Amino acid sequence: MSSAAATVNGVDLAAVGGLAQQLLAEPDAPKSSWSARTQWTGAFTSASYAREHGPIVSDEPTLLAGSNSAPNPVEYVLAALGSCLAVGYAASAAARGIELRALEIELAGTIDLRVFLGLAEGHAGYDRIELTTRVDSDADDAALQELHEHVVKTSPVGNTIEHPVELRTRLVKS
Amino acid sequence: MSSAAATVNGVDLAAVGGLAQQLLAEPDAPKSSWSARTQWTGAFTSASYAREHGPIVSDEPTLLAGSNSAPNPVEYVLAALGSCLAVGYAASAAARGIELRALEIELAGTIDLRVFLGLAEGHAGYDRIELTTRVDSDADDAALQELHEHVVKTSPVGNTIEHPVELRTRLVKS
Predict the structure, then answer these.
(1) Which of A9, A105, A146, B9 is deepest in the core (most CB within 10 A)?
(2) Strand order in A128-137's β-sheet?
(3) Chain B interface includes A151 (CB < 8 A)
(4) B-contacting residues of A 70-109, CB under 8 Å?
(5) Are A158 and A152 contacting, i.e. CB atoms less than 8 angstroms apart?
(6) Rounded CA gap, A91 and A150, in Å?
(7) What is the pLDDT of residues B60-98, one digit of tens each?
(8) How distant is the Cα of A26 from the closest Cα of chain B, in angstroms?
(9) pTM, whole model, 2 decimals?
(10) Record: contact B76-A76, CB cut-off 8 A
C-alpha cells in the first residue's frame, strides 16, 4: 500500500490503528492525562498554556467590561467542542473509508449572566448547546448520519459537556 | 472618585456595576448568546472563530496521530475553565475590594481514549477535573476562601462542565 493510500482525510490510518492496537494490548494502561495552566494577566485577560503550546489568550467583550482582545471563556468552550467533533469526523470517516471534502460546524448557546453576577440563583453555564455540522462528501446520507451520531456520542469534549463532571478545587496562598 | 480608584485588579467597577444594574432593570431581557464556528482544515486540525476573533487553532499530539501544531480540544476545555475562573476571581475580588497581585490556576484531568476510539463503552470525556488556584494577595485566608468558593460556584464554564448540558445536533449535507 502506498503512503497516499494509507491516508484518508489527511488522517494517518496506520498511526490511528497502531494507537488502537496499543490500547487493546494494554487494557490496564492508565487513562490519558491532560493539563493546562492559566495565568491571570490583569482585568479579565488571561494566558493559558498546555504542554509547549500557548498562550491561549482570553478576554471579555467590552459589553462585559473587558477589553475584547480575544475570545471569551464560553466561546472557547464552543471552539473546544467544535474542534473535538472535527477530529472525530476526520478519524471516524477515515476508518469508514468516507472521504470528506469540507466540514464546518456552527455552535451556539446562551448564558444567564444574572447567575454569573450573583443576581439570580440557578445554573450559570450553558443549559443547552445547539450545533449544525455542514459536510461536503459523496457518501450517502445514511452513512453520514451514522458517522455524525457516532462522533457526537464518542466526543471527549461532548461527553464532558453532556455529563456531570466533578470539579475538585483547591486554593493555595502563594 | 478618581478613575484610578474605580479600578481594582484592572477591573472597571463602574462598568461591571452598570452591567449588573442593567440586568436588574430588565429581568425579562434574553440570556446572553454566544456562538462559534469551526472549520475542519484537514487531518486533526481545525480553525475556530468567535465574533471577530480567531483562528483558534487545534490539533492532536503526534502520539494521537496528529501533527502537534496546537493545543488539542480537551486542553482547550481546561484553558476555557481556567480563563473563566480568572475572570471570576478578578471581578469578584474587585467587588469585595480584594486586591490580587498574581493568580495562577493549574488544571488536570484524564480521558479514556478507549471509549473515544470505540474500544470500550463508557464516558469518553473527563470524569473529574482537578484544579489548584495559587493566589498572591494580602487578603486574609477566610476572605480568599469565600472568594474561591463563590467564583467556582458561579463560573459559566465550571457550571457547563459540572452540570449535564443538552447537545442538540444536526447534520446538513452541503
Answers:
(1) A105
(2) B53-58, B46-50, B32-40, A100-111, A128-137, B166-173
(3) no
(4) 70-91, 100, 102-109
(5) yes
(6) 11
(7) 999 899 999 999 999 999 999 999 999 999 999 999 999
(8) 11
(9) 0.95
(10) yes
